Amino acid sequence: MSRLVIVSNRIPGKTPAAGGLAVALKKTLAARDGFWFGWSGAFAETPQKQAKFETVDGLRIGSVDLTRADHQGYYAGFSNSILWPAFHLRLDLTDIQSHWYEGYRRVNAQFADALVPHLRPDDIIWVHDYHLIPLATELRRRKVGNRIGFYLHIPFPTPDALSAIPNHEDLLKDLVAYDLVGFQAQRDLAAFNEFGVHEEMYRAAGGTPFHLETGDTVFEAFPIGSDPEAFARLATSPNAQKMYRKVERAMNGRGVILGVDRLDYSKGLPQRIAAYEKLLENNASLRRAVHMIQIAPPSRDTIREYQVISDELDSAVGRVTGRFAEPDWLPITYVKRTYSQSSLAGLYRLARVGLVTPLRDGMNLVAHEYIAAQNPENPGVLVLSRFAGAAEIFHEALIVNPFDADETAEAMRRAVIMPLEERKERWHSLMDTARAYSVDNWADSFLAALAGDAPSSGDTAGG
Ligand code: ADQ
Questions:
Q1: Among the three residues 164, 192, 221, which one is the final residue of a domain in this structure?
Q2: Pair 54, 106: CB distance under 8 Å
Q3: By CB count within 10 A, which of 18, 24, 69, 348 is most buried?
C-alpha cells in the first residue's frame, strides 16, 4: 500500500482540544505508514525550508517554523480574515489587505520546499483546508507528479462571495492542480459548479468571463463524520459520568438546553441566545423548567472580529440573565473554556436539547457527537440549522433557520416537550445516519477515490 502524507496547517497534538478528526486521521495514518506535516507552532527569524521530524505516539510528524510576519499574512490575515469570512458568506467581516496574499503564497511555497525532499514517488498526499489551497500548485512546480487530494472542511462560497476574494481566479486554478477536491456537502459542490454558470451568464451579457479548465480534476462531496461507536462508549465512561452527575444534581430536574461551539461568528451564538430569550418570553411555564448551558471557548482571539463576537455574546447573555433571572434561578450558564471529549460527552448525554444552530458551517461535528452520546432509552433532541452541512444528512433533527428567532424558539419548545416515543424514533434514525457517515468511512472513501481504485460514491462536477 502507498504511504500516506497528510498536510494541514497545524500538526496533531498541538491544539488545545484534540477533536475526533485528529484522532481519526492519526488512525488512518497509523494503518498506512507515512507522515503528517504542518506548521510546528513555533516561530523562526528566517523562513525555514528544512522540515524537522519527530515521532509522537508512534506517528512520524514533520514540521517547519514560520516567521512571525509570514504567519500573520498567511494565517490571521489571508486565511482567517479573508477566506474564512468570505467562504462563510460574511463579506462584511472580511478585512482585505493585499499584502497578506503574498504571505499566504510564501508559506505554501515554504511548505512545498520542506516537503519535497521527503516524498517518495508513490506517496499519496492529502492536503487539508483553506490555508493550503495553493500547495498542489507549488508541489507541481517542484515536479511532484504524485496523486494529491484536497479536502475543504468549510463551505464553498457562492459566486458573488468568491468574486470578492482577491486573487480568487488563482485560487480556482490552484484547485485544479489537485487530482481530487473533496467538499463537505452537495451544497458546496453546487456552489463550485455555480461559479462556471455565473461566468457564462457574464459572457452572454457581453463581459469577459474567467474560464476555468478543470481538466482531470474530480470534484466531489465527502461528508465528514465522527466515530459514533467510540463516542457512545465515551459518554458512559467514568469521567463522562462524573460530569453528568455533577450537572444533573445542580439542575435539579430542569431540562438542559446545550450549545457547544468554538467562539466564532459563523456559529450563530448571539442569534441562538436571542432565540432562547424568545422561548422564555413566549412560554412563561418553561422559565423555571429549563436551563441553557453554552460552552464557547475563544478562538483566533488576535483577530478583531473575534473580540467583537465575544463582546456581543457577553452582552446577549447579560441581557437574558438580567431580564429573566430570579434569586433562585438563572436562565443560562455561559462557560468560556474547553473540556475533555469525555466531559463533553457526559454533558451531551444529559442535555434534553442539543442546539447546533450555525449561520453557516461546513459540517459541524458537534451534531454528530451529540447524537452519538445519547442514552438510547431516553435520548435528547437535536435542533439543527439548515445551513450546517450536517442538515443534508440528519433529516430527523428539528431543522431551523437560525436567523429566525421565533422559528428556533418554537423548535426548542417542541424539543423540550417531545414525548419519549418520538424522541426515540428520531434518535434511532439519526444514529443510523451518524454510523453510515462515520469518520472512518469518510477517510476510506476519500482515499479510495484519490488512489483511483474505487468508483466514486457521490455526484461529480462535470468538467
Ligand atoms: P469547527 O468549526 O471547529 O471545524 P466543529 O465541526 O463543530 O467545528 O468541530 C468542533 C470540534 O471541537 C468538535 O469535535 C467538538 O467536540 C470540539 N469542541 C468544541 N467546543 C469544545 C470545547 N469547549 N471543549 C472541547 N472541545 C470542543 C471545522 C468546520 C466544521 C467541520 C470541521 C471538520 O468549521 O464545519 O465540521 O472542521 O471538518
A1: 221
A2: no
A3: 348
